[in-house]
Amino acid sequence: MTQTIIRVRFAETDQMGVAHHSSYILWCEVARVDWLNQHGNRYKDFELETGISLAVSDLHIQYRQGVSFDDEVLIKTKLIEAKSRRFSFDYSLIHAGKLVAKARTLHTPTNRAGQAVRMPEKYFALLAQHLEPL
């Protein structure tokens, strides 16, 4: 599991001063890329070397409590599924010690043409060693 801290930016809030629901998706992306970086797999380098992207093929978010401008949000990220054609990450978003949202993303490796492909064995092994099933 990795931990990433973000601070809610003013541009991410809505008219009520609460972080817009779409911001949580971006925060999960930041946390996922950070997870990869912290495990020695820079996503940018992976894409350049393999020509493969990890396309989001499914996304679920359960909102529990709002956060506001300048609030600090801790995102705990873990890889919960690793197969040759799909990966799944779990996210816990926490503010002031309280769980404010839970999220899960499913990713499909795709080539530059957008076709699903198998993850190269080298990278599959690197990711799979950090698997933390629920």
Task: List descriptors.
134 residues, alpha+beta, Thiol Ester Dehydrase, Chain A, elongated
**Count of helical stretches:** 3
Number of DSSP strand runs: 5
Oligomer: single chain
Largest sheet features:
5 strands, antiparallel
- Helix and strand content put the structural class at alpha+beta
Q: Looking at CATH, which topology would you report? A: Thiol Ester Dehydrase, Chain A
In round numbers, the mean pLDDT is 94
User: What overall geometry do the principal axes of the alpha carbons give?
Assistant: elongated
**Spatial sequence of strands, sheet with the most strands:** 1-3-4-5-2
CATH architecture: Roll
Provide the β-strand percentage band.
35-45%
Q: Give the helix proportion (percent range).
A: 10-25%
Low-confidence stretches: none
Q: Report the CATH C-level class.
A: Alpha Beta
Q: Radius of gyration from the CA trace? A: 15 Å
Helix-strand pattern: EHHEEEEH
CATH superfamily: Hotdog Thioesterase
Q: What can you tell me about this protein's structure?
A:
This protein is α+β, with helices and mostly antiparallel strands and 134 residues long. The protein has a single domain, classed as Hotdog Thioesterase (Thiol Ester Dehydrase, Chain A, Roll). The chain has helices at 23-38, 43-50, 121-128; strands at 2-7, 53-63, 72-83, 86-95, 98-110. The chain has a five-stranded antiparallel beta sheet. A hairpin with a 2-residue loop joins strand 3 and strand 4 (86-95). The longest helix is centred in the first third of the chain and has 16 residues, at 23-38.
